[in-house]
Amino acid sequence: MSPILRVNSPGLHTTVQDLGRDGFADVGVPPSGALDAVALRLANALVGNAPDAAALEVLVSGPTLEVIAEAVHVAFVGGTAALSLRGAQTRSIPTARSVHLAQGDALQVAALAGTSCGYLAVEGGIGVPLILGSASTYTRGSLGGFEGRPLRIGDVLDGSEAASEPAERELANPLDGDFDAPIRVVLGPQDDHFTDAALETFLAGTYAVSAQADRMGFRLEGPVLAHKSGYNIVSDGIVSGSIQVPGSGQPIVLMRDYQTIGGYPKIATVISSDMSRLGRRSPGAKVRFAAVSREEAEAIYRAEEAAIAERISGLREARDEASINVAALYDANLIDGIISARE
Amino acid sequence: MTGVRFLPAGDKALVVEFGDRVERALSQRVLRLGQRLQEVRLQGVIETVPTFRSLLVRYDPLQTSGAALEEEIAAHLEDAGGAAEPVRLWEIPACYDKRCAPDLDEVAARTKLTVDEVVARHSGARFLVYVVGFAAGFPYMGDLPSELVLPRRADPRVRVPAGSIAMATTLTGIYPLESPGGWHLIGAAPIRLFDPAWERPALLRPGDFAKFEPVDFAEYERIRAAVERNDYNVPFTMISA
């Protein structure tokens, strides 16, 4: 491991994440890990990494990173925004395509589009110590990732020099954000704490992701859900996807950095296959819920895992036309504010 | 076994619910099932999380299914009733000095006890660690002597200092890190509760017992300095639960 990237600007909230840590919820440590685990796995696959390699998670607006290694091989997956690359060559790299970069190049992940989270993977992975078995950052616990916190200007990330010259690769089919798809849930564990009308409302209503949405939880706004009798329960276990309903009647979906126990009734749990779909949604995005049985949810999970594996095996060598002429983008006013590599 | 309910928590977890109260008998059943499941290592189980009155079981649906797991767990409910393993009884140094205990006077006034009586009751009890959660390493311990039971503060603090010993309802706890909090602060423990570098990253684990040993402010500072130098271990004895 050696220094590979310097953070010239950190973006809104950029953290090191992998697929998370298991086995410590009994002492209060949630899994953390990528909000959009599908995008993370695809980004890793594009640069030839194992699915659980550590990458950078970018929320809403991304960092500008300068290459300080001789060469690195990177890929970004998340939404539709292109990467801006400034250096010996100045060009724009579409999402879901890997690219080789040389020392002095500066890579900017600008404002995300078509998602609220994206993943920048580097061949060989981002080099941070594994804490409790994972590279994932848990910021509330100041644990894991890069010093337990989001990146700051001037941070230097370790990693591997691009070992060989593997071909630049791309996804055969872009990742659909699935923004109109209902978010599927399994009712419970405390659906019996809600009135029949509340359960009906929950499944028929349209909610919106509120401004209070972070890696810990997404507060939703929409039709109020009435409890049968009170909104306090003796705290019990939480998982990623638990939908708590506090006294306000407005649901909160717990995300990857959840508190491990909670004292509000949980009307339902988002199925694991739909957590990435929900994780992509930004404040203001609509959320509708649809109930499936646990058996259906497990079958969906198995099918989706097979589909992701198929997607990964379908990665292909990048075609030249995928590289967009940056001058054309300037003319079209699509990008601005590229930061010089040599500030 | 009577009164046990299996509840789904999505497609990767289920809840084994023993009841809906904070009660040692319930907690012991939860903890014993958790211990039993760790011993038998059922196919596909990722981790178990004991809470006051239920055990959360996380699993991998590529290796098992919720329905299959429920049957397997049900078979272990009976043999989870046997004798419990010995557990740790921690002796936690506790400074009840005013400098460490901003709410002690108020707690005394509201419980109609003297400060010394509050301290004597808090440090005289042996607490069960029901749950570790809220924050990494935060122990929910109980039960407080009934005279000390108070609701949470009406105005939660934005910053509670690390090490604060706090109480609310029937429970007491220690804040591992500075964090927001709504419990009454009646003392401070000069110890480290969580360190990811430890093999067991949390000092106190569900099922452990703890009691508080009063120390004066000078002793508190001395222990705190020793903790900083990694030159202090919290004493414990093994007891049968």
User: How would you sum up the major sheet of chain B?
Assistant: 8 strands, mixed
Specify the structural class of chain A.
alpha+beta
Average pLDDT confidence of chain B is 94
Low-pLDDT sequence parts of chain B: none
Oligomer: heterodimer
Description:
The complex is a heterodimer of chains A (343) and B (241). Chain A has 343 residues and is of the alpha+beta class. Helix content of chain A is 15%, strand content 29%. Chain A is built from 5 helices and 23 strands. In chain A, strands 7-6-9-4-1-12-11 form a 7-stranded antiparallel beta sheet. In chain A, strands 14-21-18-19-16-15-22 form a 7-stranded mixed barrel. Chain A has a 5-stranded antiparallel beta sheet with strand order 2-3-10-5-8, with helices on one face. In chain A, β18 (242-244) and β19 form a beta hairpin. The longest helix of chain A has 20 residues, at 294-313. The model of chain A is unreliable at 324-343 (pLDDT under 50). Chain B is α+β, with helices and mostly antiparallel strands. In chain B, 25% of the residues lie in helices and 31% in strands. Chain B is built from 5 helices and 14 strands. Chain B has helices at residues 24-40, 66-79, 104-111, 115-124, 217-228; strands at residues 5-8, 13-17, 45-50, 54-59, 86-95, 127-132, 139-142, 157-160, 164-168, 171-174, 179-181, 184-188, 209-215, 236-240. In chain B, the strands form 3 sheets. In chain B, strands 12-9-10-7-6-13-5-14 form an 8-stranded mixed beta sheet, sandwiched between helices. A 4-stranded antiparallel beta sheet of chain B has the order 1-2-4-3. A two-stranded antiparallel ribbon of chain B has the order 8-11. The mean pLDDT of chain B is 94. At the A-B interface, β14, β17, β21 and α4 of A face β2, β3 and β4 of B.
Can you describe this structure in just a few lines?
With 343 residues, chain A is an alpha+beta fold. Helices cover 15% and strands 29% of the residues of chain A. The two termini of chain A are 25 Å apart.
